UniProtKB/TrEMBL annotation, chain A:
Domain Aminomethyltransferase C-terminal intervals: 916-1002
Source taxon at top rank: Bacteria
Alphabetical list of InterPro entries matching this protein: 2Fe-2S-bd_N, BFD-like_2Fe2S-bd_dom_sf, FAD/NAD-bd_sf, FAD/NAD-binding_dom, GcvT/YgfZ/DmdA, GcvT/YgfZ_C, GcvT_C, GCVT_N
Name of protein: Sarcosine oxidase subunit alpha
Domain GCVT N-terminal: 625-894
GO terms under biological process: tetrahydrofolate metabolic process
Pfam families assigned: Fer2_4, GCV_T, GCV_T_C, Pyr_redox_2, SO_alpha_A3
Example GO molecular function: sarcosine oxidase activity
Keyword field: Aminotransferase, Oxidoreductase, Transferase
Assigned protein family: Belongs to the GcvT family.
Organism: Cocleimonas flava
Automatic annotation (TrEMBL), chain B:
Protein name: Sarcosine oxidase subunit delta
Domain of life: Bacteria
A Gene Ontology molecular function term of the record: sarcosine oxidase activity
Organism, scientific name: Cocleimonas flava
GO biological processes: tetrahydrofolate metabolic process
Length: 1011, 112
């Protein structure tokens, strides 16, 4: 049987947007179906008389399609033909079919079709009462694991692909005078009026074509079918070069200062995988001077017993399927409404050639226009009545209708049964206020339309059309024209008149404020009356929440999970608030407001990341020698954004073996490290010295030209945050080095003090980290090696430790610093980065006879730890003063200017006894290397919780000392030299160690000062 | 994402180019050693947390790297004024939201 619900022949709608000459085959839950070009998955499934599209989250009840747009709560699908193209959270109502499309229900366990509702419903109902999440999270956390497994299995919730996404996504920055959100009658009219002034306009719509609700209704504009007006208007906009038109483009986020994100699905409506060379999705980042929200409204369903049986739909959705897709979702319709507008659904159904059982109107009377049309069509209207309960299993078989009293709160007569297979309901419309809330707006309640409308929080945003609570089409068009002109004028354009199409004026009776249809039984005993279909929240659940003491709607929502699904409660929020308000004896505005956050509909990670994937995901910085390191087998370590060689294994060497070899080679011959990542800041100006005096703890006034000095930097809190060597090139020219990871922060630190506190100092900073490469050779053979390659006099009597010389090395200009982070005789050769590789290779060429050995960060760490040199950030943690590090020698309290952090070094807290201080540790068993981070106690036999006095900050095996060495911070450690401490381990063992000086090797410094 | 006018570049640029550096007009005491621990602590550690207008220090980090001041409404995020270092704000700040640490900040640290 093919497409039994497709309207054909004379009954077919002339305005239908599907092309019956183009059949398309797709599959849903592994079964093939046929639809036509222009169909959504939802319209094609309804055409094929598919009632059940999923199972409900909590009770496992069968669910069908309810809506025709973004508000659809049930038909949430997993899309994709291959593992790599899987996309979760696709609404069947917004996805067009294309040849070969494959999709599955996400809420399908155990099976969408087989009816095991009894079993599953009972099982889940017992496990998940209202307040389930709240109570579960308050309960012992281990239970959650059990619950979570069940919920995930039962609900599906969609899944992410396990293979790499082969598609390309991109981001585009856009600027506009006026961004119009929504391309329905209001949006098109606003865009026309704004664009005609010359303003730069973007018009974006989430659907695959413009027209909005006009595509679903049968209105005439200027006396002709609305489609004519749509076509003419879009033609005009498309040919104007100040207008950008976007379809399949959802404005999902409204961020600060009129910055909006638009998620454009470029190929999703046509292909599983984007064709070669095409972008699948594009994120538009738009900064607009003015934003017009023409977002339309979502119809509200009425809440009644068993209102989730497949076949219960929104009245407007039924009209959409008939008029836009030529699909009538059933054979016999029963319509329940509280307003005139929904009568059109009965007329559309009637015109498709199928039976309208009756219109059940909750009001005592309706407007003249619709009553006449109903009478002409021979449709029965039953006033002051309501559908109290639907009956059926996987589809509706009949409905119970009963008279209502005038308040709408009680039934006032006996039940009559109506056989039907479709129930369409409407309790009015909710303006789509979502975007207006994203930056802090709080929608305000309008009693006359029984809905929330955007507030005036954002002065550069205008809401118009149904999105602002306007419903008669004539009013929408007039208001939208003014909004367009007003927005353009706010951007400096000059609109003097507006123009808009004319629609028919109808005699409309007021709608009735009714949300929840009463039942004969109390709500708690009545058949389930669903409010939030996606998360199975019922009217009884909301009433229970109120009964349990929750008064704020925000608490009720969290307790019941109302509105917490992927649909964000687009259909359920207002009904839920109305039910809570009634139970609380308050009005809806007294109960609260409804707030939405970005995004309006789910956005893929692909669109968010755009081109920032793979090697572009995060910045990687390479030194000028990187390719050499790669070619020579380096293992790499991340240091900030830098990729630094970690160690250079030879053959089958382990890391431990490689590091031991590199350490010994440096101590006994010559080692070389690429130290280019060190932060380097060029400081110039007559006040450079004075500036250094202020930001470093030590004194700089007397540092001679050609000399280097180590300095510590403290925050105003007195805590060390960086260290490094600064060298004097000339009286007003210094080169500061910083830690590799701290360079950006230090640079910023210098600037903020100079610009905001001491602008009178004439000093200039320039980051030169990338311009200079640093090649550091270390070891007893370092001088011999360098001597072969430079014209600089290396005579140790004149070129002493902590001296700087400029000259030529390996044929290129260089600055050579005799400074050492290894404790050996060391030369740091600085050359222009683009010469670095040539110099490096020359050093290896000449160094071969000294067995020159490249080493990485691990060996550097061991060598510096053997000497007790700290690494800021490893041996310090933002709570260590220079005195805590036993580096008082680097503090000059006598300086004239009170250097940054100085006053804090005299605070009560920083001078107190028993602060944690940096010391060395020697394990009793020389071969045991204590894990870094080990906690330190004085009494290993103390009962838990033990008194912890510090922790290990650095710990290595020293090849040259043939024993383990460690650095640690210990309370009062400097006064505990020689004391035993203990490090209890997770495996129950305890490591014993003795506190010592952190300088383990060459304590007198003879090797680095060697002559 | 804010749209911020850099008073040095004289252009509106996206927030991504800027870095917020906390409360503005925290003046470093000229003679720190003369202050009590409490007064020095006020200067180093205590900051206002107003609901409403707030004077802030910002830097055009990936642009001209200049610091400048901004008066911003912390509730609506509206930028009320931008002015250069050395200039004074025209828009007053909102009263600070009282917090539990207020009892420790009785002494005025900053003398302008
Ligand atoms: Zn700038």
């Amino acid at each position: 049987m093919s497409q039994p619900n497709r309207i054909q022949g004379n009954n077919a709608s002339a305005q239908s947007r599907v092309d019956v000459s183009k059949p398309i085959t797709f599959s849903f839950n592994n079964k093939p179906y046929t639809g036509y070009a222009g169909d959504t998955i939802a319209s094609a499934l309804l055409a094929n008389d598919v009632d059940v599209v999923g199972r409900s989250f909590k009770y496992g009840r069968p669910r069908g399609i309810v809506a025709a747009g973004a508000e659809e709560p049930n038909a949430i699908l997993q899309l994709g033909k291959t593992e790599a193209t899987q996309v979760p959270n696709i609404r069947a109502t917004q996805q067009l079919i294309y040849e070969g499309l494959e999709c599955h229900s996400t809420n399908g366990w155990p099976s969408t079709e087989r009816d095991v509702m009894g079993v599953v419903g009972k099982l889940f109902g017992r496990f998940m009462p209202p307040g389930f999440y709240y109570k579960t999270f308050m309960a012992p956390s281990k239970l959650w694991m059990t619950y979570e497994k069940m919920i995930r299995k039962g609900a599906g919730l969609g899944r992410s692909p396990k293979a790499v996404d082969p598609d390309t996504y991109e981001t585009i920055n856009q600027h506009a005078d006026v961004l119009v959100v929504g391309g329905g009658p209001a949006g098109i009219t606003a865009a026309l009026n704004a664009a005609r002034t010359g303003a730069r306009v973007i018009l974006a719509d989430e659907q695959n074509e413009f027209g909005g609700n006009l595509l679903s209704q049968t209105d005439l504009l200027d006396g002709a079918p609305a489609q004519d007006w749509i076509d003419n208007s879009i033609d005009e906009l498309a040919t104007a070069d100040n207008v950008t038109l976007l379809i399949n483009a959802t404005v999902n986020g409204y961020h600060d200062h009129n910055f909006l994100t638009i998620h454009e699905r470029c190929t999703d409506q046509s292909f599983d995988l984007a064709p070669e060379g095409e972008i699948r999705q594009r994120m538009h980042r738009v900064r607009a001077k003015q934003v017009i929200l023409a977002t339309g409204a979502h119809e509200r369903p009425l809440v009644f017993g068993n209102n989730d049986i497949p076949g219960c739909m929104l009245a407007s959705a039924v009209s959409t399927y008939i008029n836009r897709y030529n699909v009538v979702p059933g054979k016999k319709l029963l319509l329940m409404t509280s307003n005139d507008n929904a009568y059109n659904t009965a007329f559309d159904w009637h015109n498709s050639g199928r039976l309208v059982r009756a219109i059940i109107d909750t009001r005592p009377a309706a407007g003249k226009t619709v009553v006449k049309k109903a009478t002409d069509a021979g449709i029965e209207i039953i006033y002051s009545s309501a559908i109290v309960q639907a009956q059926g299993n996987t589809c509706i078989s009949n409905a119970m209708v009963a008279p209502l009293d005038e308040t709408g709160e009680k039934l006032s007569g006996s039940v009559k049964q109506y056989d039907c297979d479709t129930i369409a309901t409407s309790s009015g419309w909710n303006p789509a206020v979502h975007l207006s809330c994203h930056t802090g707006g709080r929608p305000t309640w309008r009693e006359d339309i029984q809905g929330f409308v955007p507030d005036n929080f954002n002065k550069n945003m205008i809401a118009t059309g149904a999105g602002n609570g306007l419903y008669p089409l004539t009013e929408i068009l007039q208001d939208a024209a003014s909004a367009g002109a007003f927005a353009a004028n706010a951007c400096g354009f000059n609109a003097t008149k507006t123009s808009y199409a004319k629609a028919a004026v109808e005699d409309v009776a007021p709608s009735m404020p009714i949300f929840h249809i009463p039942h004969f039984k109390p709500t708690s005993r009545a058949p389930k009356q669903f409010v939030d279909f996606q998360l199975d929240v019922t009217a009884a659940g909301i009433e229970l929440a109120v009964q349990e003491g929750f008064e704020s709607i925000e608490h009720v929502k969290r307790y019941t999970a109302l509105g917490f699904g992927t649909d964000q409660g687009k259909l359920s929020n207002i009904n839920g608030m109305a039910i809570a308000a009634k139970k609380l004896g308050k009005t809806i505005p007294e109960t609260g407001t409804t707030v939405f956050r970005p995004n309006y509909t789910p956005v893929t990670f692909g669109a968010i990341s755009g081109r920032n994937v793979n090697e572009f995901f995060d910045i990687e910085r390479y030194s000028a020698l990187h390719t050499w390191h790669v070619e020579n087998g380096a293992e790499f370590e991340d240091v900030g954004q830098w990729k630094r060689p970690w160690y250079f294994p030879k053959g089958e060497e382990s890391m431990h073996e490689a590091v031991n070899r590199e350490c010994l080679a440096t101590r006994n011959g010559v080692g070389i490290i690429d130290a280019s990542t060190l932060g380097k800041i060029d400081i110039q100006g007559p006040d450079a010295r004075e500036f250094l005096n202020r930001v470093y703890t030590n004194a700089w006034s007397k540092l001679p030209v050609g000399r280097c000095r180590y300095g510590l930097m403290c925050g105003e809190d007195g805590m060390v945050f960086d260290d490094g060597v600064t060298s004097c090139i000339s009286d007003n020219h210094f080169i500061m080095t910083t830690t590799s990871g701290g360079a950006a922060h230090v640079f910023n630190w210098l600037e903020i003090w100079h610009q905001t506190e001491w602008p009178e100092l004439e000093v200039y900073f320039n980051s030169v980290t990338d311009q200079w490469a640093t090649l550091s050779i270390s070891g007893p053979k370092a001088r011999l090696l360098l001597g072969e390659l430079t014209d600089i006099d290396l005579n140790p009597d004149t070129f002493k430790f902590m001296d700087l010389r400029e000259g030529v090395v390996a044929g290129v200009p260089a600055r050579v610093f005799r400074i050492s982070f290894t404790g050996e005789q060391s030369y740091e050769i600085n050359v222009q980065a683009n010469y670095a590789l040539a110099v490096w290779e020359k050093l290896f060429e000449h160094g071969a006879k000294y067995d020159i050995t490249p080493y990485g960060t691990e060996t550097m760490h061991v060598l510096r730890a053997e000497k007790g040199f700290i690494i800021v950030g490893q041996d310090t943690d933002g709570s260590m003063t220079p005195y805590d590090l036993d580096m008082g020698w680097a503090v000059s309290p006598a300086k004239e200017f009170s250097f940054l952090g100085k006053r804090s070094l005299a605070r009560e807290d920083t001078v107190k006894e028993n602060r944690k201080q940096l010391v060395g540790l020697k394990t009793t068993d020389a071969k045991t290397v204590a894990p870094e981070g080990s906690q330190i106690v004085l009494d290993p036999n103390q009962k838990i919780p033990m008194t912890m006095v510090g922790h290990v900050t650095s710990s290595y095996y020293s090849a040259v000392l043939e024993r383990s060495i460690a650095m640690a911070v210990i309370k009062g450690g400097l006064d505990k030299m020689g004391d035993k401490v203990y490090m209890p381990q997770a495996d129950g063992t305890t490591i014993e160690a003795e506190i010592c000086s952190p300088v383990f090797y060459d304590p007198k410094g003879e090797r680095q000062n060697v002559k | 994402m804010f749209l911020i006018y850099c008073p040095y570049c004289e252009e509106e640029r996206a927030e991504e180019e800027f870095h917020a550096s906390g409360e503005a007009h925290i003046v470093r005491p000229t003679d720190p050693e003369s202050l009590s621990d409490e007064a020095w602590g006020d200067y180093v550690f205590f900051r206002k947390n107003p609901r409403g207008n707030h004077h802030e220090l910002w830097q055009h980090t990936t642009g001209c790297r200049k610091f400048f001041y901004m008066t911003r409404d912390t509730a609506t995020y509206e930028i009320k004024e931008i002015y250069k270092v050395g200039e004074q704000p025209k828009v007053a700040t909102a009263p600070a939201v009282p917090n539990k640490y207020d009892q420790f900040s009785s002494e005025q640290a900053v003398k302008k």
